[in-house]
Amino acid sequence: MFRKFLVLSLILLASSCTKTSTTSSADGKPLPIYEKGWNAKISQINNANCYAATNGSDSNSGTSNTQPKQHIQNCIDNVATNDGDIIYVAPGTYNENIHFLPTAGISLIGSTSNPASTVIDGQQLDSVIKIQGTQGAPVKNYVIQGFTVQNGNAQQNTWYGGGISCLNAGLNLENMVIQDNIATYAGGIYISNDGSISNPDVGDISLDKVLIINNHAASHRGLYTAGGRYVTIKHTKVVSNTSISGTTNGGSGGAIFNTSGHLLIENSLFALNEVSAACGIVHGTGVTIFNSLSTAVVMNTTIANNNLSGFGYGVGLEVSTGSVTPSSVVLINSILWGNTGYPNMTSQIGFANNFSPSSTSETWIVNSDIQGGLSAIPADTNNIVHWLSGNISSDPLFVDTNSWQSGGFSIQQSSPALDTGVAQYTLTGTTYTAPSDDTDGSTRPLGVTHDMGAYEIVVPILKPTKPTIITATVPPFQKPHIKTITPHFTAHP
Q: Could you tell me the pLDDT band of residue 254, with boundaries at 50, 70 and 90?
């Protein structure tokens, strides 16, 4: 008898695929290079000039966290009176209407990790926060981070900015919630700078990780920005803002209305905003880019399910021109879908020639998902659309079109917008680079390349694995056993 061993090897291999994105240039005039505006680095600041806490006292010095003021306004009026001063505010609810002095650009810092824990409540008395700079004077820069700003009412006094009203100043907002405010103009935030954008005394505007929700106004429902040299909006959600009940005039802007300045919108969501007017013309329910000085870049942004009840121009994105200088808009890796108007208005991008019938605009669209495609965009000789590579017009398959929460406007794994964005694109010498994260801070890309829209989603990708060897042993071979059988015969009678 002898023994044999049989070795069986099973190698399991998985394969992965790759794809590359190409860039190309469009014919036409060069586009201006976007420069980021002023942005304070609060993380580098360790000491405050004044502290405020709900259990403090205005008779305290406010200069240490053991002797805090009770009211934020007391810090502004009596302690933090110099440029660059900082006020730290402990968690709690502050029933105040705050007015910053025009003589000092200061920083107001709450809970940067949880803005819901530090609330400034305007009690429906006035705008919650007012910043009033001086026209023609050197610009003052203000920083507000880590607050919920709510219950402001600017209908009777200033009219502008129920949550925040900022005039002639630079403003940086970060980790903020602006909710449940009302105004005649700009229920959530109103920011306006007088003068030319070439003037160095005109402030820059920056919003990062800001939620603007459930604000109400006759015009400019969510956010209004005007006159800043550079307006930067990142990781921001403008959702569920509406017209004041009974509004009869047209007004402008359901989510955001921007005029003048160089605008960058990135990794942002504009959804479920409602504009209603019994008469008049409405300028856009999603994003309105107005005036000839606007040069806008909209990248990895979702504009979806905004609704217009009345006549308007663009239910998703409106490009509105001024007098002489052409407006330029670059749309990359973005989704415009499900925005509707009355009656039966579904054009996701529209144009309005204001002040002069000869005013013009140019819009470049790259690697974006636009409902209805190019044929649904009402371009003409004055409003030129460059429909470039990588664009689609297929349902993006949002997770939930009725809610923005829990990634409702992120895309499903079967979405045609998955892995169809572009990392970089060059237009006549200007290179636009897609962001390295999404609206919630998740890394981009998570797949082969960037997804379209505000969200990047995770899809399981089969990657090569180390070969696995399986060894099996069979029993030894044995010689067959032969048994001899002797037949027996029985005689029959």
A: low
Token pair 């003409």: residue: 380
Instruction: With CA atoms as reference, report the closest residue to 275 among 285, 266, 283.
Output: 285
**φ/ψ bin of 307: left (φ > 0), alpha (ψ from -120 to 50), beta (otherwise):** beta
pLDDT at 477: 47
Residue tagged 């204001």 (tokens): 354
Question: What are the residue boundaries of the structural domains of the chain, listed by start?
Answer: 50-234, 279-287+295-493
Per-residue pLDDT tens digits for 141-151: 999 999 999 99
Percent of all residues in the chain with a pLDDT value above 70, rounded to a whole number: 69
What are the C-alpha distances in Å from 368 to residues 221, 232, 303, 421?
26, 21, 11, 7
Q: Which long-range contacts (CB under 8 A, 24 or more apart) does 47-51 make?
A: 47/86, 48/86, 48/87, 48/88, 48/109, 49/79, 49/80, 49/82, 49/85, 49/86, 49/87, 50/75, 50/79, 50/80, 50/85, 50/86, 50/87, 50/88, 51/75, 51/87, 51/88, 51/89, 51/90
Pairing outcome for strands 424-427 and 430-433: antiparallel
DSSP 191: E
Helix (H, G, I), strand (E, B) or coil at 118: strand
Sequence-distant (≥ 6) Cβ neighbours of residue 190 within 8 angstroms: 154, 160, 161, 164, 165, 166, 183, 220, 224
| Distance of alpha carbon 183 from alpha carbon 483, whole angstroms | 106
pLDDT of the residue at 66? 93
DSSP 3-state helix, strand, coil percentages of the chain (rounded to 5)? 5, 35, 60
For residues 40 and 43, give the distance between their C-alpha atoms in angstroms, rounded to a whole number.
9
Ramachandran class of 227: left when φ > 0, alpha when ψ lies in -120 to 50, beta otherwise: left
Phi, psi of 66 (to 5 degrees): -95, -10
- No. of H helices and E strands in the chain? 1, 36
Q: Which pLDDT score, from 0 to 100, does residue 322 have?
A: 60
Strands (E), 129-188: 129-132, 141-150, 153-154, 164-167, 170-179, 182-185
Six-digit token pair at 25? 């240039």
pLDDT of the residue at 178: 95
Strand extents, DSSP E, 3-140: 50-52, 86-89, 92-95, 98-100, 107-109, 118-121, 129-132
What pTM value is reported for the model? 0.82
CB-neighbour burial class of residue 73 (10 A; exposed 0-12, middle 13-18, buried 19+): middle
